[in-house]
Design a protein that fits this description.
This protein is mainly alpha-helical. It has one domain. It is built from 7 helices and no strands. Helix 3 packs antiparallel against helix 4, helix 3 runs parallel beside helix 5 and helix 5 runs antiparallel to helix 6. The two termini are about 40 Å apart.
Length: about 210
């Protein structure tokens, strides 16, 4: 084995097949999770157009929560697709981490529904935010293991496996910081999920040499 990748062509084919199965399975689970988000949407009621519009307004927060959940899952999938399309090998630790990542993805539709059940409070908000922070950290661990074990294709860009924890930090920090601040800013805490990574990126960029 060289750089974590078997030299035997047959073993290499097996590894590629295992990597493909892992990525295809991950894509399928993410697709199911996004579909489950839509299944929870309340249908507007009313016999007239005005009544339907009024019903849509009454459920505006549920629709907003769906959009937030969709965008969050889509962002996780985009990051996964960007990195793991270069995967050509498998490792037991990677499989375990991938299943943990998928568990948190599948929980996201449930946690999105929790956001809309009753009055939004720190516990409901925190459950969703902490789960998303964990997704960021588990993903970083997946990339770290893959890079360390040489599971990416030789033709993969150098940035694919570089500094996974540094890349995960802004997103995870945004989710985690929003939880204690929820008591102060209420639903504006959702904005922190996007604002903190942007601010973090600007601060880091300023510290880098020209």
């Amino acid at each position: 084995m060289a750089d974590g990748y078997p030299l035997d062509p047959d073993a290499a084919d097996v590894q590629r097949g295992a990597a493909d199965r892992l990525t295809f399975f991950s894509d399928a689970v993410v697709a199911i999770a996004i579909t489950l988000l839509a299944l929870e949407l309340p249908a507007p009621e009313g016999a007239t157009a005005a009544a339907v519009l009024r019903s849509l307004g009454d459920h505006a927060y549920e629709y907003l929560a769906f959009l937030i959940g969709f965008l969050v899952v889509a962002a996780h999938w985009r990051a996964h697709h960007r990195v793991f399309r270069w995967l050509v090998g498998e490792h037991p630790r990677l499989v375990s981490l991938a299943l943990t990542w998928l568990l948190l993805i599948v929980l996201t539709p449930f946690l999105t529904r929790v956001l809309t059940e009753g009055d939004l409070d720190t516990v409901r908000f925190g459950m969703f935010a902490v789960a998303q922070a964990l997704l960021q950290l588990v993903f970083a661990a997946m990339v770290s293991v893959s890079a360390r074990e040489g599971l990416f294709a030789p033709s993969a860009p150098a940035l694919v496996g570089a500094h996974p924890w540094r890349h995960a930090a802004p997103g995870a920090l945004g989710f985690l910081v929003s939880v204690p601040l929820f008591r102060l800013v209420d639903r504006w805490a959702f904005v922190l999920w996007a604002a903190v990574p942007v601010l973090y990126g600007r601060l880091v960029a300023r510290r880098l040499p020209d």
